Amino acid sequence: MAQIIKINDFSDPRLDVFARLNERQLLNRDKPENGIFIAESPKVIDRALNSGCVPLALLLEPAHIEGEAKGIIERCKDIPVFTAPMHILERITGYKLTRGVLCSMRRPPLRTVENVCETATRVAVLEDVMNPTNVGAIFRCAAALGMDAVLLTKASSDPLYRRSIRVSMGTVFQVPWAFLGNGGIQELKTLGFSTVAMALENDTLGIRDERLKSESKLAVVLGTEGEGIKRTTIEKCDYTVCIPMHNGVDSLNVAAAAAIAFFQLGNNQ
User: Fold this and answer.
1) 0.85 exceeded by the pTM?
2) Burial 233-258 (b: 16+ CB within 10 A, else e)
């Protein structure tokens, strides 16, 4: 039976995990087994539960107890269910929640690159992509456009930051992911992947080049928002691809470039 607990004061310490702990505090690097993330909306929470994530507490508008959150509450069973009026939820999130449901959840153990890539034939590699909005959007593209996994360098934004989860619509729980070690590109080659750098270079292949589609295992590398992929990384990749541009536009946002690359090179055709 769910424990319904009404909260009317934004300063209530039971709201700390939702309102006052920053992403680094939630991550809890010193004790990662105690790390927490926040999922928003019934659809996203449902996807997190489907992936095996453990719920800790729910926070929602009272109207959702018998509404959109009813199924989530039933799935979460004995955890506390805090209810608060919309003006408090808006202070926590900074915007109006159209489906006012938040869930604090235990972070799952990190997976290894080898585990994530075991059955993958198409993977995305994010090199120092630091904007959580872009990371979330890339995960959504990866899920929709046939990428089997996402690998990130350690300087990239964590996929379980609240904004990344929200922008991804919960696909961060559907697409396997892991952080790359120091081996980087060489680690992927050891696992049998050919690598393609998405970079603004003069000597590049066309994105429709049949050599790319014919690769049995392909890793698509995308770089940081400002500088792109590091020169040392480009030199280590097997191919370099530049998306054709028109009207004086020299580049695309990394998430937009990812969508084009995944559509052309993913397992969707």
Assistant:
1) yes
2) bbebbbbbbbbeeeeeeeeeebbebb
